Amino acid sequence: MSPSLPQILVVDDTPANVKLLVDVLGAKGYAATAAVNGEEALASIARDPPDLVLLDIMMPGLSGYDVCRRIRANPETALLPVVLCTSLDPQQERLNGIEAGADDFVSKPINRPELLARVKSLLRIKSLQDEVKVQAAQLAEWNSKLETRVEAQVAQLERLSRLKGFFSPQLAEAILAGGEELLKTHRREISVVFLDLRGFTAFTDQAEPEEVMELLHDYHARMGEIVLAHDGTLERFAGDSIMVFFNDPLPVEQPAHKAVRMALAMRQSFPEIASRWRKRGFELGLGCGIAQGYATLGMIGFDGRRDYAAIGNVTNLAARLCAEATAGQVLVDRKIIARLDGEVEATSIGPLSLKGFSQPVPAFLVERMGATT
Question: Considering the entire predicted model, what is its pTM?
């Protein structure tokens, strides 16, 4: 039989009735099969559900009513159209049939036009029900996929939010697009900027805790804006100390240039903050150190709290240069000067004896970037 033909199961214990109905239905293009009792009908329905059941009421064993009730009790066949055939009192049989869950009735002897009309009508309803079921299944699948996509997007937004804690928004999005493999431990040459406040210790000794928090909020907000504007990677805020590096986790062109430009922008911006606090009796300044070199970089921490860190001598050098800088000074090492050869106005301040370094370190005071940049 062609699977595209409507499948109709004829259930009757009288062979002549079965042959008549199968022939009539077959002549109209339906694929009709037969069962001779209720048990066989239920087995056939379970094995290969039809599109409609034409069911005799009076049968040995399970009656048509019993079969109809079992069809309705099964969630898989609860909506299967059932037409009851009866030669008994039509009114009483209709009441019993409705209680059993029948969809329609035909009286024996069978009126062929009436039978075909009822079958056609119920099959149309069945087709619509099947379409609704398919649409419901598709909707459920779409909802499931939508939930999965929403969960994935929420997770991505959470990861992006965490990454934005130490990367610029553009860089954080690039990392997500390229995978977090970028954040695994690796080694790379970077430019490191270290800065902190001059006069901060005296300030904390005299100021109220609320004033300390107010200063740090303003200072971090202003410096943070400048870090983001220059595409720096913020390694940490630690009180008044800030560490930023360039050329990782994604390589950038001229990281030394970016580092110095950022430091000079910070130096230019800080006097506005200093002026407000000077009016309240506090003297504050900004010192900065910049160094170039190789470091080991990657994620550190534990589940629930992770940071992205740079570890190496270059970070210590930047911190030591910063410690030597007075208010408003930007001190850089020899490698930074070499990278900016001819593009920066700087003065050598002679080798410095820095804590943690066995040999004096050449250092330079940067005044401004040259016109060629």
Answer: 0.58
